[in-house]
From TrEMBL:
SUPFAM superfamilies per record: PUA domain-like
Taxonomic classification: Eukaryota, Viridiplantae, Streptophyta, Embryophyta, Tracheophyta
GO CC, any one term: nucleus
Name the UniProt record assigns to this protein: EVE domain-containing protein
Highest taxon of the lineage: Eukaryota
Length: 227
C-alpha cells in the first residue's frame, strides 16, 4: 500500500509571492527560500501529491487563501533545497488567522504553536476542518456541493416521466391502429380508437404536468446554487 497523503501549510508574504503569482503561468513553481532547519525538514518530508494550504503571512494578510499540490519532491538548486508545487484552487472563502484561532476544532493546529515556522505540518483532521470552514477550494471536486445530486435526481425524474409518456402514447396508438386495421371502421373499432385516444390525452397531460413541475423545481434549484 502507498503512503497516506500528507497535508501542509506554506507561508508566503503576498508582496513577495502571492496567490495570484502562484496561480499564473500554469500554476507551477518552485517553493524555495526556506532557511529554517525545521521548515527545511518538513519540506524534505513532502511527497508527490501531498496537499498544502497556501497562506498569506505578514501584517493584515494572515489568511489561508488557496491550496497547492506537490508535483516534484525535494531536490536541490544551487545548494538550496526546493519542491515544486502546483496551484489547485483558491479557497471559496479565505480564512483569516483570527477566525482560525477562534474555532474549537482547530486547537491542535501547529500553525498556532509555531507561528514563525514557514512550512507547517497539518493533520488530516485540521485540514478537513479548515476546508469545512472555508467551503473547500476550487478544484476539490465539490464545486456544486450537494446541489448536483438533487438536480441530477430531478433531471432523472423528468426524463423518466417523458419516457413513460412516450411509451404509453406509442402503446395506445399502436393498439388503436391495429384494432382499426383488423376490424375496419366499425362502430366498435371507432369506439376503441376514441377510448385509447382519450387515455393517451389524459396520460400525456399528466406527464406534461409532472415534467413541468419537475422542471420548475430544477430551475429553482439551479437559480439558488452558488450565489
Amino acid at each position: 500500500m502507498g503512503k497516506e497523503k500528507q497535508y501542509w501549510l506554506l507561508k508566503t508574504e503576498p508582496g513577495e509571492w502571492s496567490w495570484d503569482d502562484q496561480a499564473s503561468n500554469g500554476g507551477i513553481s518552485k517553493w524555495d527560500g526556506v532557511k529554517n532547519k525545521q521548515a527545511q525538514k518538513n519540506l524534505k518530508a513532502m511527497k508527490l501529491n501531498d496537499l498544502c494550504f497556501f497562506y498569506h503571512s505578514g501584517a493584515n494578510a494572515r489568511r489561508v487563501v488557496g491550496a497547492v499540490t506537490v508535483v516534484r519532491e525535494w531536490y536541490e538548486v544551487g545548494g538550496e533545497g526546493v519542491v515544486d508545487v502546483k496551484a489547485v484552487g483558491e479557497m471559496r472563502r479565505p480564512l483569516d488567522l483570527k477566525e482560525l484561532k477562534g474555532d474549537e476544532g482547530l486547537k491542535g493546529f501547529q500553525l498556532f504553536r509555531q507561528p514563525r515556522l514557514s512550512v507547517v505540518p497539518v493533520s488530516k483532521e485540521v485540514w478537513e476542518r479548515v476546508c469545512e470552514l472555508g467551503g473547500g477550494f476550487e478544484g476539490d471536486g465539490k464545486e456544486d456541493g450537494g446541489g448536483d445530486d438533487d438536480d441530477g435526481g430531478i433531471e432523472k425524474e423528468v426524463m423518466e416521466a417523458g419516457a413513460i409518456a412516450i411509451c404509453v402514447g406509442v402503446e395506445a396508438a399502436t393498439m388503436a391502429l391495429l384494432a382499426t386495421l383488423c376490424c375496419g371502421p366499425t362502430p366498435s373499432s371507432i369506439e376503441l380508437l376514441i377510448t385509447f385516444a382519450g387515455k393517451l390525452l389524459t396520460t400525456t397531460c399528466i406527464a406534461f404536468y409532472v415534467n413541468l413541475s419537475d422542471l420548475m423545481c430544477l430551475f429553482a434549484n439551479l437559480t439558488h446554487t452558488k450565489k
